[in-house]
């Protein structure tokens, strides 16, 4: 037995409760490219501007503000901001994988209200003198939406899979620990929609210059390399179905409340706790303590025996090993087989 001074006494005990399944969805958003000391919140003057969700296709995006007065290339900001504005005005509602690579099918499907004349095409192109004029009135251009002043972060929802960890939120209330299952985990990374918009406008201009909006080249095949991991699998038909779903599903906009807002605290107390703890059903197990330890322990591996896997040592076997180590001068009474 270990000496008394090496004991690890229990300092606190908690009753554990699992909250009922919620109608709402709870997602854990991770920001691997953001310092944890600089969260996107009101206290850091970086409150998210908009959040949106595609629950069926499994995507989340959030727009956060960009400081256009510090470490910012104003010329590129105007160029990219105008590209985003014009692409959206022409009917483009999304870019990238979350939109099913909608630009790939844009050539075959004319956009409502899209320019068709040479004059309209020239109007789409942002001339250098226009950029210079906006640079001189940068604040006004920013207020009117001509400047890229927000960054989009997004990712694909990772839901529960067999063999993968399941995440739960933990909330303490006195001597109670309440656990709530997380619907999915999303790693929020920068999305370069402004570059997609520049490319889309350039491709649209080239197609219309060739007069192929409705011509035979509109449906010409394109070589597209992509790797998609989704609930549908990795086969070509499944990928096509996944892209179609992502393109057809509309974004659902979400209301954002800061973590210190009263609404956030109200939702925290309402959704993350079991109200009637006395009436909550009790979890029971048919395992003994030793069986439970065996179940969660790694299997022992004996290199000399490749025919079968060894189970973890039992409490009695561990005691025998400790007794034999304490009597170095005397041989062990019986040999423990591992």
From TrEMBL:
Q: Entry's InterPro entries?
A: RNA_pol_III_Rpc5
Q: Where is the composition biased (Basic and acidic residues)?
A: 297-307
Give the keywords, sorted.
DNA-directed RNA polymerase, Transcription
| Ranges of Acidic residues composition bias in the record | 323-338
> Could you name the Gene Ontology cellular component terms for this entry?
DNA-directed RNA polymerase complex
Regions of biased composition (Basic residues) lie at 308-318
Q: Does the record bear Transmembrane helix in its keywords?
A: no
Region (Disordered) residue ranges read 295-338
Recorded protein name is DNA-directed RNA polymerase III subunit Rpc5
Organism per entry? Phyllosticta citribraziliensis
């Amino acid at each position: 037995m270990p000496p008394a001074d090496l004991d690890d006494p229990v300092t606190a005990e908690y009753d554990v409760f699992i909250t009922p399944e919620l109608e709402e969805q709870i997602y854990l958003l991770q920001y691997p490219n953001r310092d944890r000391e600089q969260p996107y919140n009101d206290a850091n003057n970086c409150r998210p501007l908009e959040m949106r969700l595609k629950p069926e296709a499994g995507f989340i995006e959030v727009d956060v503000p960009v400081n256009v007065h510090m470490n910012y290339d104003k010329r590129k900001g105007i160029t990219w901001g105008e590209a985003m504005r014009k692409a959206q005005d022409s009917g483009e509602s999304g870019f990238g994988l979350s939109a099913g690579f909608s630009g790939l099918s844009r050539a075959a499907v004319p956009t409502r209200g899209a320019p068709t004349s040479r004059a309209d095409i020239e109007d789409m192109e942002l001339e250098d003198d226009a950029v210079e004029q906006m640079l001189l009135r940068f604040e006004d251009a920013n207020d009117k939406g001509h400047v890229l002043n927000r960054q989009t972060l997004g990712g694909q929802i990772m839901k529960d899979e067999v063999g993968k960890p399941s995440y739960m939120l933990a909330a303490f209330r006195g001597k109670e620990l309440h656990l709530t299952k997380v619907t999915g985990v999303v790693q929020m990374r920068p999305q370069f929609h402004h570059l997609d918009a520049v490319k889309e406008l350039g491709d649209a201009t080239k197609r219309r210059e060739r007069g192929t909006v409705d011509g035979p080249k509109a449906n010409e095949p394109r070589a597209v390399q992509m790797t998609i991991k989704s609930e549908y699998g990795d086969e070509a038909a499944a990928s096509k179905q996944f892209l179609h779903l992502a393109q057809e599903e509309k974004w659902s906009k979400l209301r954002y409340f800061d973590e210190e807002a009263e609404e956030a605290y109200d939702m925290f107390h309402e959704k993350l706790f079991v109200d009637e703890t006395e009436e909550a059903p009790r979890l029971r197990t048919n395992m003994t303590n030793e069986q439970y330890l065996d179940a969660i322990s790694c299997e022992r591996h004996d290199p000399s025996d490749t025919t079968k896997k060894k189970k973890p040592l039992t409490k009695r076997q561990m005691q025998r090993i400790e007794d034999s180590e304490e009597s170095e001068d005397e041989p062990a009474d019986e040999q423990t087989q591992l």
